[in-house]
Structure formats: C-alpha cells, structure tokens
Specification:
The complex is a heterodimer of chains A (409) and B (93). With 409 residues, chain A is mainly beta. In chain A, strands 6-5-14-9-10 form a five-stranded mixed sheet. Chain A is globular and about 70 Å long. Chain B is mostly helical and 93 residues long. Chain B has one domain: Cytochrome Bc1 Complex, Chain D, domain 2 (Orthogonal Bundle), CATH 1.10.760.10. Chain B is built from five helices and no strands. Chain B is globular, with a radius of gyration of 16 Å. The chains are: A mainly beta (409), B mainly alpha (93). The interface between A and B is large, with 59 and 41 residues.
C-alpha cells in the first residue's frame, strides 16, 4: 500500500516523468574525485535544498547530498552545509505534527523497560543539557572511491560533518523509565518512513552499554541553533564515535528490548566482515560468525587546504586539513611528499574534544613541478590509516590515506 | 583555493534555478517505461545513473532482487525481467 504522503508526491513525480525531455544539466562539478564511478560525474549537480547551501546532489529521492570539501577547512561544519542522507523517501515536512516541536512526542518504552514515558519537546529541553562536539559520518563515506566499485550511494569525501550538539543524555531519559537487567539493546525509530509499507522502516539499535554513555544524547541543538529539518529536526540521537547509521533523525520512539533487534537495517545492512577492521567496540548481541554491525569510526584524515590539482607558488606551501577517529583522540598527523617513505609531523590545531575534527597543518618546501602530499593520522591507541583499501562488499570504513597533487609554479 | 571556490560558484550559478528529479533522463531503450513505472515509485532514477557503468549482469540482478525481496518493491516477475535486461544493457559495464 502506498502511503498518504507518497501518494501526493508520486502523482507529481508521475506527471514530471510524463513530460520528460528536458536535457539533464551539464554539470561537471569541479573537484569531484576522478575515482568516482563515471555515472556519478554524469548525474551529480550542485543544488541547494531548503535551508541549505548548494551541496553535491547524488540522489534526489531519498535525498542524498554531500558536503563539498571546501567546508571542511574548519573543524565545525556549518549547519547549512551539513550533508543530508536519507534511506527512505517519506520525509515529514517541517510543519508535520510528527516533527513540529509544538506537537512532537517521543515515546519511550519497550519490554526491557520498567514502564513507558511520553516526552514533549519542552520536557526534553527541561532535562539537564549536555554538549559534545562530534563527527557525524556516514558508514559509507567514500564508498564511491572503492575499487572495485560496490553498489550504494556513491559518496566522495563529504558524507560527514562535525557539529556542537546539545541535548539531553539518553541515559537520563532511560533512567526515568528504568531498565530491566535483561535489557540488551536500545531501539530507535524516526518519523520518516518508506514509500510502500512493505519496505522495512528504518529502525536501528545500539547496545545498552553504548546507550548509557555520558556522551550519547537526544540532541535538539546543532551549533547553537535548532537542528535543521533535513538533519533530523526537532531531535536526533547522537552516538559520538559511532558511524551515522545509529544517529536516528526525527526520533519519535525509543525502546529497551531484551532480545536483539531484528529487521533488514540491523540483520542485512550496515554490517562488516568479522575480523577485518581494527575495531575495539563490539556490538556483541548482533554479531554472527561472519559479519558484525559497523560500530565505531576508523581513524581518518582529509587534506582540505588545497584541492587536488591546485596551483601554488614555489617556496613554502602550508598544507592542512582535519583528522578524526572514534573518540580515542588524534595523537598525530604525518605528511609525506615521497609516497610514504618519509614522514613529517604536522602541527595539531584547536582541540574541540576527542570526538571532533582535529585540524592539522604543516609548511612544506615546494619546488616547481608536481608535489603530491599524503596525510596519515594516528590515534591515541595507535590505530592508523591504511595504504591499501580494506575491501568489504557494502563499501564501509574507507580510510585509505588521502593525497592531493599540487601544481607548483 | 580561491580558484576552486570561484569554480564552485560558477558551477552553482550555471545550474537551472529549479533542478529536480524530473530532469533525469534515462537512456531511451526498450524497457525504460518499466524502469520508470516501477523504480521511480520509491526512489529517483539518478540512483541508476550513479551506480553505473560498473555494475554487471550479476550485480544488477542482485540489486533488483534486493529491491523486491528485501525492500518490498511490488514488481511483477515479467517487469523485473525487463528491468534487469534494460539495466544490464544500458547501465552495465
């Protein structure tokens, strides 16, 4: 059965299809990595969604728009440049009663809890507030750079952002209902839904131990402003250190459960092969013999001072960017100009907390000709980036060292 | 960097004011009507372009099966066959 909202949109989409024939905009976006599938460079356009600056449109519906690298020059990503990622296309309008702060309700319960609770937006804001600066990165960020390519949203570098999130601790809300000792997972559902009711709703769970960490929040502010509509208004789950799949947007339901959550989005999607990545945090109740849910982000970095192919003057060139990990903290970033044989230690910049983008920079001598600069971040527990892609069929956890080649004039 | 910014700006200005999914034009070939009629019910058709041309017969087959079996797309067996053939022929490697 088609849902009400989809019925309306489907009718207009059908009409649009019937009058097709408008040529697709010729839009080779400068700076799109050459490693992306050719089809991406044919269809991607820079386009502004409501309330957003022009972002790189990869898909219109469900909307998937990534942030141009330009916006990663600072450790905080502006709200209007923050990437947009949805699985399902039935997204409530900003004034829909499901997500309008005046009518929004968060239902808390589940058989793993001692009771139920219904919170309004003011109730949520009345709880003790916590702030954390944290990176929200899609599990499939950089999927488009996989070789061989794998199907999915073919992201370049920009399915991520770092913001100062403010909200109530999830733990405080769970404490209000009380958890039974048998509770193993906390399950989230958001207000968006599928176009057809046979499509599995996007529902995700995290282990109780992660849910009750001090930094796991039900956030209602992002960089000092209300959370933008397309980033999960009026409230979303914040799971610092873990990939974005668990950061439920437009959250309206939180359940404590005594059995592992099943369903497509837990059992089939967002899983990585067991033992292939250097991961500390395990989601034990969801692990099987061959695959395990993606959890914490792998250590990573991105050069943002210069676009690949940028022209610079001979002399000293200061190369910089950002580094991040799962919250162990960035210990160092090293740069190489000889393909990884020799490394120079970069200077780390402003520390906004262990979950934030950490800036780095270093002045390098630049002679005329081509200069390829590669960055490698290392975190506080000694994890570092890979030189060779760790292949996995769903295209997660790409942390191959990034490099840019400068044209020194 | 300024050049990069200006280039981004120029590209943004060059776009039509109201770009939207109605502008997506899949390759004109037999089966396109079945693709548009079925796939666009749940998602925009740029998902097809984006996942090209690296997909092959095996991966397109798996993708269409996933849409039907895992994600509940109400596509008939006959249409699924036509859709797969269209995707493999027009958006396969």
């Amino acid at each position: 059965m088609i849902t009400r909202r989809r019925l309306l949109e489907g009718a207009s989409a059908g009409a649009a299809l019937a009058t097709m024939g408008v040529p697709l905009a010729e839009a080779a976006i400068p700076g799109l990595p050459e490693a992306l599938p050719a089809g991406v460079r044919g269809e991607a356009v820079l386009e502004a969604l409501p309330g957003k600056k022009p972002l790189i449109k990869l898909a219109y519906r469900a909307p998937n728009y990534e942030t141009p690298i330009e916006y990663f020059k600072t450790p905080i990503t502006p709200n209007d440049a923050f990437f947009v990622r949805y699985h399902l296309s039935d997204i409530p309008a900003a004034n829909d009663k499901l997500i309008d702060p005046k009518t929004w309700k968060l239902e808390v319960g589940g058989e793993g809890g001692n009771g139920t609770l219904s919170l309004g937006f003011d109730d949520l804001k009345a709880l003790p507030a916590t702030e954390v600066v944290a990176v929200n990165q899609c599990s499939g960020n950089r999927r488009g750079l996989f070789h061989p390519h794998v199907p999915g949203v073919e992201w370049g570098y920009g399915a991520m952002g770092c913001a100062r999130w403010k909200g109530a601790r999830l733990k405080d809300v769970l404490d209000k209902v009380g958890l039974k000792k048998e509770a193993v997972e906390i399950v989230f559902n958001g207000a968006e839904g599928p176009a057809f009711d046979k499509t599995p709703d996007f529902i995700k769970s995290i282990p109780v131990w992660k849910a009750i960490e001090e930094t796991t929040l039900i956030a209602y502010e992002m960089n000092g402003a209300p959370i933008p509509h397309l980033n999960g208004a009026p409230a979303r789950i914040i799971v610092p250190g873990w990939t974005g799949t668990y950061w439920m947007k437009h959250v309206i339901s939180i359940k404590a459960v005594t059995k592992p959550e099943s369903g497509f989005w837990m059992n089939s999607a967002y899983r990585i092969p067991v033992g292939k990545f250097p991961i500390v945090a395990h989601f034990a109740t969801q692990e099987n013999a061959t695959t395990t849910p993606i959890t914490e982000m792998v250590v990573n970095s991105l050069i943002t001072s210069h676009a690949d192919g940028a022209k610079v003057k001979a002399g000293n060139v200061t190369v910089g960017g950002i580094a991040w990990d799962a919250g162990y903290g960035i210990r160092s970033v090293d740069l190489s100009t000889d393909g990884g044989t020799n490394w120079l230690k970069a200077t780390l910049g402003q520390d906004l907390g262990r979950f934030a983008f950490r800036p780095f920079s270093l002045a390098l001598p630049a002679k005329r000709g081509k200069l390829t600069v590669m960055a490698r971040a290392t975190n506080a527990i000694g994890q570092t980036q890979t030189a060779t892609l760790i292949f996995n069929p769903a295209g997660y956890h790409h942390n191959v060292m990034h490099s840019v080649t400068l044209d020194v004039m | 960097m300024r050049t990069f910014m200006l280039a981004l700006l120029a590209a943004a200005l060059a776009l039509p004011a109201l770009a939207d999914e109605s502008q997506i034009k899949l390759k004109d070939a037999p089966g396109r009507d079945k693709v548009e009629g079925n796939c666009a019910a749940c998602h925009s058709l740029d998902y097809i372009q984006m996942n090209s041309p690296f997909m092959n017969a095996t991966t397109w087959d798996a993708e269409v099966n996933k849409m039907i079996k895992a994600l509940g797309a109400p596509i008939s067996d006959d249409d699924a066959k036509v859709i797969k053939e269209y995707l493999i022929k027009n958006y396969g490697g």
